[in-house]
Amino acid sequence: MRYLPIFILLFLSSSCKSDDQLTHAKPLTLHDTLISNGGSFALGFFSPTSSNTSLYLGIWYNNIPGPRTVVWVAHRDNPITNTSSPMLAITNSSDLVLSDSQGGTPWAVKNTITSAGATAVLLEEGNLVLQSPNGTITWQSFDHPTDTVLPNPRFLLSYKAHVGMRLVAWKGPDDPSSGDFSCSVDPSSPDLQFFTWNKTEPYCRLSVWNGKSVAGGTYLTNTSSILQVEVSKLE
Ligand SMILES: *[C@@H]1O[C@H](CO)[C@@H](O)[C@H](O)[C@H]1NC(C)=O
Ligand SMILES: *[C@@H]1O[C@H](CO)[C@@H](O)[C@H](O)[C@H]1NC(C)=O
Ligand SMILES: *[C@@H]1O[C@H](CO)[C@@H](O)[C@H](O)[C@H]1NC(C)=O
Ligand SMILES: *[C@@H]1O[C@H](CO)[C@@H](O)[C@H](O)[C@H]1NC(C)=O
Ligand SMILES: *[C@@H]1O[C@H](CO)[C@@H](O)[C@H](O)[C@H]1NC(C)=O
Ligand SMILES: *[C@@H]1O[C@H](CO)[C@@H](O)[C@H](O)[C@H]1NC(C)=O
Q1: What is this structure's pTM?
Q2: Same domain, 107 and 176
């Protein structure tokens, strides 16, 4: 009887173990994942179904059963082809570097701060951030979307008359590499217009600036949830 409380404490402490962080001392290897602290998202290595010859670092929903829904891919056009021992690590100079077993670097984030002690954290909203010990974020995956926008305080469509962020479709259901279709503002138009593109050809104009906002809509995703999308101009 007197051992029971000890068992409960052990169980609690192991279930509270944080693995949403990557540190210099603890790199991420092939079968490891980072799980955001509320359990919604996972970051790790994956092979698209039916192909085990290419490996990608990505973020997917952690608790949706069935096929994995990938929301972000780090190096979609530069897969790891030798799948034996990839590693995501934080270097001495606080860069975030993906390496393969043959010493190649398919993807890396150069940190703007070179002091040691940076960590990479997978946040509960699905954002991977690289941060200094004092919490300053120096890079985030939300600034580099793949084909998915997650609820996100700021997704810049255009910035100083240049195309800001662009969503680019996967080439196919099993191929995360950049496909022909993308979605962004029209860089050649003086007005803010939002298009899907087939390569460089406009495919469909989704919306145009009306003086207040470019687009918006409330979608009933199913009977119990509502998705609200708003595209507006920042002052
Ligand atoms: C891919 O890997 C899984 C498990 O690692 C294995 O069951 C499957 O047969 C492999 N598929 C191919 C096409 O090699
Ligand atoms: C990183 O730092 C550790 C100790 O601080 C040192 O032993 C190691 O050689 C360094 N690695 C590189 C690649 O500079
Ligand atoms: C993958 O890398 C390992 C370690 O460098 C090497 O032993 C192996 O032969 C490589 N496999 C292929 C298919 O290149
Ligand atoms: C956090 O630390 C970095 C250096 O690592 C420094 O450049 C930055 O100013 C610091 N930010 C704050 C808010 O202290
Ligand atoms: C996209 O453009 C290519 C020509 O570049 C055309 O062959 C293809 O049919 C277009 N796709 C769609 C869905 O319209
Ligand atoms: C609607 O979404 C909720 C929460 O994701 C889910 O539990 C429910 O089964 C869904 N309803 C339908 C009709 O798909």
Answers
A1: 0.80
A2: no
